[in-house]
Design a protein that fits this description.
This protein is an alpha/beta fold. The chain has a single domain, classed as Aldolase class I (TIM Barrel, Alpha-Beta Barrel). It has 10 helices and 14 strands. A hairpin with a 4-residue loop joins β8 and β9. α3 runs parallel beside α5 and α8 packs parallel to α10. 44% of the residues are buried. The model has no long low-confidence stretch (mean pLDDT 95).
Amino acid sequence: MLRSRIIPCLLVRNKGLVKTVQFKESKYVGDPINAVKIFNEKEVDELIILDIDATKEKREPDFKMIQNLANESRMPLCYGGGVNTVEQAKKIIHLGAEKVALSSAVINNPKLVVDIAKAVGVQSVIVVLDVKKKVFLGKYQVYTHNGTKSTGKSPKELAVQFEKLGVGEIVINSIDNDGMMKGYDLKLIELIRSSINIPMTVLGGVGNLDHIKEVIKKYNVIGVAAGSLFVFKGKYKAVLINYPNKAEIKDLLK
């Protein structure tokens, strides 16, 4: 079993780096290229970059930005946002990204996962499921378009479906916990982890390294991702790009 990767997740809006709270209240936190340079120095395991408005605004991926980020990055890079075709996915991989993250396009057309996997390789295809709990029903549902459109489908149903279709990895992102820094949604992680066998990365809610350690120990996920934890520092959330040092990582993984 490969060791769990510790992954910063950067959100891009209007070419700037932002951080959200429950997919709202976006706060500008800097330039993505500068963040990549700092993460290079910190020898980060992997980096996820998501253009959070591309699908909602019906835009294709910003290929120039992707090229600039990939050229700068010395770590594996996963890009998501606005990817709707095999040709777009191929171009993103050609520009230097290792993985393509897909969401609404493949939820609407699951066969697209198969087609993209054939074109770029299964290991390069990631499906992101943004999940929110319906208040009155108390059940999880997957949302698209930056959390504004409900699919009416459960994350378990979709995760199982995409595993059968041969996707390389599933990312489970909690909208409710996004930016709250109170910890992962463990019930959601348990629900999906017990339903699929493919690699799984979790995202949404990390406030400290103990939250990461808990999930690695309990669920043996391939990836633990975070946004706020790696761009903010201290109780006043001063903007400071950071990442665990080697001693801290060793402690997280033991």
